[in-house]
Specification:
- The structure is a homodimer.
- Chain A is an alpha+beta fold.
- Chain A has 2 domains: 95 residues, Phosphorylase Kinase, domain 1 (2-Layer Sandwich), CATH 3.30.200.20; 203 residues, Alpha-Beta Complex (Aminoglycoside 3'-phosphotransferase, Chain: A, domain 2), CATH 3.90.1200.
- Chain A is 41% helix and 14% strand.
- Chain A has 9 helices and 9 strands.
- In chain A, strand 4 and strand 5 form a beta hairpin.
- In chain A, helix 4 packs parallel to helix 8 and helix 6 packs across helix 8.
- The longest helix of chain A has 28 residues.
- The radius of gyration of chain A is 20 Å and the shape is globular.
- Chain A starts with 8 loop residues before the first helix and ends in a 9-residue tail after the last helix.
- The model of chain A has no long low-confidence stretch (mean pLDDT 94).
Chain lengths: 319, 319
């Protein structure tokens, strides 16, 4: 829920003039996304999303993110595509911030994901992985092992404020993952943040994927593990094995998972649970009072981590 | 900046089915407005605003607000109009809250109001007052004298936390206004919250007024006084007498101001400054840490109040 930058109407009109998208007739800040300022703009030609990239996004990563969206959209994946200005550039500047106009994608994200949503999601992840194979740019996942080490260092002194013993649990888990993190799995472009609010549906159809601002180059199967965490737990943190099975099976129909990927799934899911536990914990401990963004509960991911710690094999996920 | 209620996609689709506006293809929470949850929805037939009325809005006031918008829109004022469901009702319920779908208004609110904006605004206020004359419902202004008394009682113990001496300044001002508040001025429907973010422009045209959720029955000239405060001070609180003059003159061309109204303008402006000082002070002292909404600076209105306290007559506003 965020609009960090106010865009004066005159500046907006001037900015939009550099594009062949008509004249702005309306501009509304959108209360979604926590990293950037997003506006839904309507012009005399159509609807678009204007994004101003705020501090948490590294400027040097933007060509990767925008290039990836363009690459995937060109290959027919339903995702927003950056609009180029008349000078051929998609990445420009507005109100002192990097800014881009991207195409508007119809659909709504599911507040209560169903089994069918998970099944459709599985195919979409595989489709993304396949269409991303020949994307030329690389971006290391800075929220994998080395990123977790930094986050642990920056949260361990105060983690027990959230729940006693949390710091020790996290340090043990990190040590385990450092020793057991898989090697040699297929690497490619992953979305890395495919939570329900980044997946749009229209009726019985998945209408598109949005928000590629955590995308990076990492194990493809890790993207599936992230979705196990983000989609397959119910409200009270019970794992819904049917959702997991449907998601993985529909993924594997398009891109078969190797034996090594299947075997690694519990570890990848533990890593993914630790990743969101750590970033949420960091935000929880560091959000300024009066901040626009309500921090998310880190303990939700502690519960998910505990589930994966018990998982002996991919059978825990219904396969 | 606010979306207080999440609307599940299934509930939204069911809600919209009761209207003849097509099927929802997109729904975005809007980061504007501090009282209610607003969503920009697109359907197969067009764009609409969905509003869920939150706690601060009194349910029993909603027929006045929605009826007023309908009345004004029917008379040709450019403002949102409530859409009626197939059962003829505009006010319905969604996610346990009163909810309405209203028409979408093109235009953008000016982040940096110009003299021309103020001139166009003057005519729009007069137009609203004239078209509201035969609106049958009444709603007392609960943010006039009696409301200020309540707010003073609820803030005086802690007002000096914001700036020493503030409590005394406010109590003196309230005593002055109680003695000198005008009587017998023309009464009618006023908007009562015509800040720049509630007035849309498209190029050189005022395209409409929105957010009638403070509208009430009060002195028409008080609406002008509110706009003197909301539009005619520059960033560092200098009063821009040209903006004021243009606004009042264009207002008076459509609805001439009486001698009594002109004479009362400094007092009305003081009352309006006190009203926003008090509500901002209350919010400043009472906003919960981590709230979505950043409270606005009450001291801006202390400076404005000081200006009007010096005003000897309407000549201070350029007339």
């Amino acid at each position: 829920m965020a609009v960090y930058t106010e865009v004066p109407d005159g500046d907006l009109a001037a900015f939009v003039k550099a594009y062949d998208i008509g004249e702005v007739v309306s501009c509304k800040g959108i209360a979604e996304g926590v990293e950037n300022s997003n506006f839904l703009i309507r012009t005399t030609k159509g609807s678009y999303i204007l994004t101003l990239y705020e501090k948490r996004v590294n400027r040097s990563d933007l060509p990767f993110f925008l290039g990836l969206m363009e690459h995937l959209a060109a290959k027919g994946l339903s995702c927003p595509t950056p609009i180029k200005a008349s000078d051929g550039e998609a990445l420009r500047e507005l109100c002192g911030r990097p800014a881009a106009i991207i195409s508007f994608l119809e659909g709504m994200w599911p507040r209560r994901p169903t089994e069918r949503h998970c099944q459709l999601l599985g195919s979409a992840i595989a489709d993304l992985h396949i269409k991303g194979r020949d994307f030329a740019l690389k971006r290391p996942n800075n929220l994998s092992l080395s990123g977790w080490q930094t986050l642990v260092a920056n949260t361990k002194d105060r983690a027990d404020e959230v729940v006693p013993g949390l710091a020790a649990t996290i340090e043990e888990e990190l040590a385990f993952l450092e020793k057991n993190w898989p090697q040699g799995l297929e690497i490619g472009v992953i979305h890395a943040d495919l939570f329900p609010d980044n997946v749009f549906f229209l009726g019985d159809r998945l209408s598109g994927l949005i928000d590629f601002y955590f995308a990076c180059t990492d194990f493809l199967a890790y993207d599936v593990a992230i979705c196990l965490n983000a989609w397959c737990f119910e409200q009270k943190s019970e794992f819904n094995v049917t959702k997991a099975r449907l998601m993985i099976e529909s993924y594997a129909k398009l891109r078969p998972l190797s034996e090594a990927e299947l075997a690694a799934m519990p570890i990848l899911a533990r890593g993914s649970a630790l990743r969101f536990l750590l970033t949420r914990l960091y935000d929880w401990l560091n959000h300024p009072p009066g901040a626009f963004v309500q921090p998310k509960d880190p303990l939700e991911y502690l519960k998910k981590l505990r589930f994966h710690q018990q998982a002996k094999s991919v059978a825990a996920y219904g396969l």
